[in-house]
Every structure is written in structure tokens, then in C-alpha cells.
Amino acid sequence: MENALDPIEEITLMGPGPSCVDSSVLAALSKHTIGHLDPKFIGIMDAIKEQMKSLFHTDNQLTIPVSGTGSAGMETCFVNLVEKGDPVLILINGVFGMRMQDVATRLGAKVDTLNFEWGTPVVTEQVKQKLAEKSYIIVAVVHAETSTGVKNPVAEIGELLKGTDTLFLVDAVTSFGGMEIRLDDWGVDAIYSGTQKCLSCPPGLAPISFSDRAVAKVKARKTKVPNWYLDLTMIINYWEGTTRAYHHTAPINMLYGLYQALFLILEEGEDAVYRRHMENHRALVAGLDKLGISMLVDESCRLPMLNSVYIPDGADDAAVRSALLKEHKIEIGAGLGPLAGKIWRIGLMGHTARPENVEKLILALKAVL
User: Fold this and answer.
1) DSSP assignment, residue 369?
2) Overall pTM > 0.90
3) CA dihedral 44, 46, 47, 51 (to 10 degrees)
4) Which CATH number applies to 24-266: 3.40.640.10, 1.10.3290.10, 3.30.420.40, 3.90.190.20?
5) 348: Cβ–Cβ under 8 A, 6 or more apart, which residues?
6) pLDDT over threshold 90, residue 241
7) For the residues 108-132, what does the mean pLDDT come to?
8) Does an H or E element contain 190, and which?
9) Which of helix, strand or coil describes residue 329?
10) Long-range contacts made by residues 321-328, C-beta under 8 angstroms, separation at least 24?
């Protein structure tokens, strides 16, 4: 009988995620499975919490990985914090801001939006004007918009909300592990991410962190959290305290992998990791420029880990991506929404952000084009 797993070739993952995975993370995933209440595993859970708190720059006690991909992290934040009728403001300049709007609307929130042109950042002054018109329970924004490659001014938006009762919710799916995040300094009350981008761990977990104010909002709910699986009022009893209460069976080996991925980042050093992302981003931009390929996003707000580039005139979008994959074992991403067919999205995330990968892609693009 044929085995569908044989063979799976190694691909240089340079799309919007997942990213390449270090061999030590793959080795961690293959370690012996133990029970989800085993004292050894509880120790690993506690270590992961401290790693995440360090990388998020927060003292938040509720800092844990949720069982599920980054989208589960988004759902976790919204289903726990939003009740029917809550006024919520979503700042949108790409696909993932639109997903926030969709989820909040499904929960019965009264959702207002501020929309900005795709490929440009959220304008803080417009947010300030909107906040002067109305009070919100939650303001939500994407830190690193994966659909465009734009970095949004999270610290500046957080400054607008300091001293108010409004909770600040941030999507850090693409930014966490690739650029600095300072939850406590920026006044972020709830944040979610995913493992498959700059953390360079396979998809399957969603790091989240809730401030004390956010936890208080969850505990003061008038109605039950509408999603049992993501209900933090129960999950918290598994991740905290001396006696751990079973909620659901944790993805044990995935947590081994996350521990090792976080270990690698902290071992290399945050500053060194962020510098590596930026240096390889600049090398990519320079190499693409020589090929006549230009960037979508202005340099002032470009992400280092997700590069949106205009498809050159005369190039066939799908054919080029297919040739890169089949002939050169390199994956890059297509455009989404109004940018479909107009851009490619090139990821330099985590373990992928290395000079040899940049050089490999430039040479491959030159050959294919």
C-alpha cells in the first residue's frame, strides 16, 4: 500500500506562512508523547508561559498558547471579550482587519470601522477623531497586515487609549517573533498570534495574552462565553495554579515544538533576531530592484517579514509561482482581495529570514522571468 507521506520534499517556504522550521523544532515535535497532566508536561507549560511573557514584554499572568491556529487566537479574544450590543471599533487596511469585523459582527457587537487604502497604514489622527465622537468597549487593529505587508502604528494607537476604559485588541499573527512587541508599554489589553510565521513552528497553536483589565472584563460578563472550546474562564484553570483542571487534551507535541521555537529566539537574542529580519529584508529589496521589481508599501511602514511586490509587466502571476515551486522548490504567495493578480507576497519569517534564501529566490526569479 502506498504511503501518502512518502516522499514530502523540503520546500523553501517564502510565502505568507508557514515558514521554514528549524531541525531542532522538528526533533522536539518527535519526542515521546506524555500525558497532558504529567508533572513534567506542566513544567513545560509553565516554561512556555515565561518565554511568551518575555517576548511579549508583559507581566500579564494570562499569557498562554491556545490550541488552534492564529484564527483560533482571534476567535478566543473576541468570544471572551465581546458581548451582544458592545460598541467595537475595527481599524481596517487589509484582509485580516476584515476578519476581525466579521467575527465581532457574528457575536452581535455594534461594529464601527475605519477603512484605509490597502498598502497604506492606519492614520492615527483619524482614529483620534473617531474616538472623540464615540466611546468604545474595544478598539482592534492588525499590527502586521499579512495581506499587504504594512506595519500599523500600534504604539501610537495605544497611546490614544491610555487613561480610558477602552480595551485595546491587537492581531500579532505575523509580527510576533519578527519585530518588537511591548504589550505593557503600548497599553495592549489583548493580543493573539500564531506559531507558523516568525516563530517558525508548524501551525497549530495561537499565543495570546490578556491584561488584568481584559481578564476582569471576561469575569464580569453578563452572559456565558459563547464558545465552549475557547472559554478562558475554564481554560485558565488548566494553565494556572497548583492543581490543574482538565479542560481539553492539549496538543502535547505541538507544545514541545513551541517551547523549542521560543527557546531558539531567546537564545539568539531578540535584538539579533529582529536585526536579522531587517537585514535580509533590505537585501531582498535590493535584489528585487535589480530585477526591476518594485515594492507595494512605502519604506516608512514596510514589514521586514512580509514583502508585497508588484508583479512585473508581462509576467504571468500563477505561472511564475508554479515554476518557482516546481523547478526551484520555493513557495511565494499570491495577492488577496483587490491586490489579487497585482502583487506577490514574499515571506522572510523566522528561520526563513536568511541570506542564502534571499539569494536563492533572486536567482530563481531571474531564471523564471
Assistant:
1) -
2) yes
3) 130
4) 3.40.640.10
5) 14, 277, 280, 281, 284, 304, 305, 306, 307, 357, 358
6) no
7) 98
8) strand 190-192
9) coil
10) 323/368, 324/361, 324/364, 324/365, 324/368, 325/11, 327/364, 327/367, 327/368, 328/12, 328/360, 328/364, 328/367, 328/368
